[in-house]
Design goal:
5-stranded mixed sheet; 3 helices
């Protein structure tokens, strides 16, 4: 059989697609151009410059393995000059966005305790959390300065940016809890289980992601049972004050929109939606994804959201028009995304082009092969037959006698 050329995917006319011709670090000049950072299953940290339409790989190719899979990303300082990279084996690396190199590595957990589900920087301290629920505060040395047990099966840990001494955890059969790192003996707030359903059956916990709502005491969570819950610890009620649902598949990630009154959620089937936190209604659906969503982040000042997942694409959606503005193919499955909100160019600096195409890995080989035309005689025969049928139709219209 003759080799057939691999088809190329074409982007929609409103999207800006950056090809997969990734360049490899360390490159200080390249890292300073990037306004979006992503972590992949192969252990590579990827930076994307939307204004220059370029993407870069930052890694040590001699140490690439599944043990170095990037699970969480976080900023190490307020100036966003240090990027904290949490690997699946519990290692936390510090990447300098100014120099384009990894400057430090620290072992913050045992691989037997599961991968990291949360990573945050509080001043000079580092806060980590793994699947086993071990929350540790690291300052100096190889031993944690403080530690608490959040329970087994934790899926996500988040830091309260308004009150950096507070964190929230939640997971499978492990309800939402708020902890004070200065008093880690017991949680400040522990959510109560949902009421039984109409058959008097217990409704299980499964918190997949969560976020603190700015300028309030409220939190929003998404669950593996396609639910969105809002909790208010300032009230005596420990159950959700708002319940909403989206789709029929487990929700995997969420992020609060810039206005603070809406949340963007994504599920395992590549479906994304914007939900109103005041009424619990779906405002709109964000289309264009073709794989499960693993990472979401909304821009803090612009109506934009960045998403990544199993389809190996970074997408930037406009929340007002609900359309894809930028689309980047990055070759590897992506686990997390982080926006550089203080970047001089910004995510919104790039203008979408009319049309672009993405070449897959190995397309250069197919392009260099000689093209073989086949079926030419068959096409000419089809043209003759179609021409003959056209003449018969014309004779029928004029009333001429046609033999069948």
């Amino acid at each position: 059989m003759l080799p057939q050329r691999r088809r190329r995917r074409r982007a929609s006319c409103r999207s800006d697609v950056i090809g997969c011709g990734l360049e490899t670090g360390p490159m200080g000049d390249s890292s300073r151009l990037c306004s979006v950072w992503l972590g992949s299953e192969t252990g590579i940290v990827k930076g994307v410059s939307l204004t220059r339409k370029r993407a870069f790989n930052f890694c040590n190719t001699s140490q690439l393995s599944r043990d170095q899979e990037v699970r969480v990303l976080a900023w190490g300082d307020s100036a966003e000059s240090e990027l904290l990279v949490g690997a699946v084996d519990g290692t936390v690396k510090t990447f300098s966005t100014e120099k384009g190199v990894f400057t430090e590595a620290r072992n913050c957990g045992d691989p037997a305790e599961g991968h990291l589900v949360g990573l945050a920087s509080v001043g000079s301290a580092l806060v980590t959390c793994n699947e086993a629920g071990s929350v540790r505060v690291w300052k100096e040395g190889d031993r944690p300065a403080a530690q608490l047990d959040a329970g087994n099966g934790v899926c996500r840990m988040r830091l309260d940016q308004d009150r950096p001494n507070r964190i929230a955890t939640g997971g499978k059969e492990n309800g939402l809890k708020i902890w004070d790192l200065e008093r880690p003996e017991k949680p400040v707030f522990a959510a109560k289980n949902l009421r039984d359903d109409w058959l008097d059956l217990r409704r299980p916990h499964w918190v997949r992601d969560l976020a603190f709502i700015p300028n309030s005491d409220k939190l929003v969570t998404c669950t593996g049972h396609h639910q969105v819950h809002v909790f208010d610890p300032s009230t005596p009620q420990r159950r959700p004050v708002l319940e909403a649902e989206f789709g029929e598949f487990p929700l995997t990630a969420l992020s609060l929109a810039a206005a603070g009154n809406a949340v963007v959620v994504g599920n395992t089937h590549g479906q994304m939606a914007v939900l109103d936190l005041r009424k619990g209604l779906v405002r709109g659906v964000l289309k264009g994804l073709s794989g499960g969503v693993r990472g979401l982040q909304c821009h803090p000042h612009r109506p934009l959201v960045a998403s990544c997942g199993l389809d190996r694409f970074l997408r930037i959606h406009d929340l007002e028009e609900r359309k894809v503005q930028h689309k980047v193919y990055l070759k590897s499955r992506l686990n997390c995304v982080l926006l550089a909100t203080q970047h001089p160019d910004g995510v919104e600096g790039a203008e979408p082009e009319a049309e672009a195409e993405v070449k897959e890995e190995g397309d250069e080989v197919w392009d260099s092969m000689e093209r073989v035309e086949e079926g030419g005689r068959r096409e000419s025969t089809k043209r003759k037959l179609s021409h003959g049928h056209e003449e018969e139709r014309k004779k029928n219209k004029t009333g001429d006698l046609v033999q069948v």
